Amino acid sequence: MYDVLQTATSEDPAGSEYDPHAMYGSSFVVPVCGFVCRLCNKFFYTETAARHTHCRTHTHYLNLQRRGRREESNEGDVT
Question: What is the C-alpha separation between 30 and 62, in angstroms, rounded?
Fold first, then answer.
């Protein structure tokens, strides 16, 4: 009932046919733990980097302003 998965012998699948039972590029999948700014779509490993450093950047500030303007204009569109 269960298919046996195989690990591809090479991380580079060039020149070989796709095998749905083989894993390709598994080294690109890594466990992570951290923080994401959904406004800027940026990932940070530590809370300090996310909240105390990133949230003070000019880019984050501009993205926050754009979002506020977008939300204000959407409120006026409600009929």
Answer: 31
